[in-house]
Amino acid sequence: MTPEVVPAPATLLVTGATGYLGRRVVARAVAHAAGSAATVVVAASRAGTAPGGATPLALDLLAPEAVARAVAELRPDAVLHLAAANPGAPEHLFDLVNAGGARAVAEAVGRLGGGCRLVSVSTDVVHDGRRAPYADDAEPSPLSAYGRSKAEGEVAVLEACPGAAVVRTSLIYGLDEVDRSTAGFVSALERGGTVTLFSDVWRQPVWVESLAEALVDLALVRTQVRGRLNVAGRQVLSRAGFGRRLLEHFAVPGRRAVREGPAAGRPDVPLDLRLRLDRADQLGYELPGVDDVLAAAGSAAAGTATG
After folding, report:
1. Which of 20, 134, 146, 285 does the annotation list as catalytic?
2. How would CATH label the architecture of 11-177+206-232+269-288?
3. Which of 128, 134, 202, 259 has the smallest number of CB atoms closer than 10 Å to its CB?
4. 173 labelled catalytic
5. If pLDDT is split at 50, 70 and 90, which confidence band does 141 have?
6. Helix (H) or strand (E) holding 206
């Protein structure tokens, strides 16, 4: 997919901009905006240092009135809602952030009267793992508190903004920085603990760079795309297979001690979360599998070493 320059003038508001995905999204949005009058605004609970080329904005997603006021004053042309409470966070935050925060943002955007584009990020964990592969518009059937909160966030977004796009994605990773879930494994290994990776949980991990590019495109270029769509990597891997690949890539000490085991029987873990990529394919998004990304990185490193 060839990036297109953002038409000027435009203002893009990004929530969750300091997170693993958010930083890549902001970098790409700033690059898209280069040479135009476009402005990228990043939201955080406190206004502070923003990624290069972006403008900071204080925004408390847990305060709907404050969100409404900030969005009304800024009047952005597009909002990319990435902020979330992820697995591992205190469970009470799931409803507050993933459902309530999404609702606050969507309702604030809705009050602008259709003049603002909204793209919100969701997850494959809204599914129960029993009816894969899941179509773009498959109805949610979550098993966990996290999955339920994200499903509620999807509904809130589409009710308040029927023209919004809701992107369901999978495990997000990059090769220059350890992602959040892999970092948890690394920390356990460093403490001398035992790490068991699920051998029967199937996902489609997505390279953070390709996901970021698709999100910016949906927010600023393909603004006619609405409803739910899956944006994930093309390669299906077990959670264990994916985890082992990343631990090997980052040469994590103790990685040989990682064990594999089943998740079957755990009531909150969906086993098969394969996604169909019909709409992503129609849009021409490049969504390489993990092995392709690793191979390309290896080839680039070899070329640098011999160049």
Report:
1. 146
2. 3-Layer(aba) Sandwich (3.40)
3. 259
4. no
5. very high
6. strand 206-207
